[in-house]
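Support request, please re-run this one:
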Amino acid sequence: MPDEALLNLLEQARAIVLGSHFVYASGRHGDAYVNKDAMYMHPLIAAQVAWRIADEVQTWKEKPEVVLGAAVAGAILAQLVASHVELADASGSASKEVLAVYADKDGGSFVIRRGYDAVIPGRNVLVVEDVLTTGATATFLVAAVRRLNGRVIGVASICNRGKLTAESIGVETLFCLLNLDLVTYSPDDCPLCRDGVPVRTDLGHGRDFLATKAGT
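Re-run finished. Output below.
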């Protein structure tokens, strides 16, 4: 699936919204918004996206035996990706089950429990993320796998909006379906504000921005 087709698919699910005026968590402004949660309301679209990740992973020399995501949305993505990965058994013929697990948030990090920690040691693990921004969650997940003596074969993501690299996450392989170079502006230098483009209040932090602006 080419990037343009993928982008259209995500726009269809309103997982990516372009051409508006958004305020991000950082306080900066821009004209694009990644609304990852919207995609999961559309299981057929989510499945197509996850299957595209699985198709790429099929080409890797090391195949995943376990797919790991972060709760909550990452758990859904891990299930969808794992369901489409084909893994040959020792004879090279029959298909083996690829496991799907997820990590829980634990303070400022993530921990693998619920019995999932028992299936990590000694296995090849693919870490999946829907959106990469700072890479913090992916880095925490990679560290959690390695603490349990699992082998991280790589990280796969739907969207990389933080210009992250495999090296910045500490893995050998990083695959992203979509790389978005989002241009952002400070409120004082925002051309959208200057041109009077209305701030969106249904997505992002536009409501808080307008409330603060009204109070000044």
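Residues 1-34+182-210 form one domain. Helices lie at 3-12, 36-39, 43-57, 73-84, 136-147, 166-169, 191-194, 206-215.
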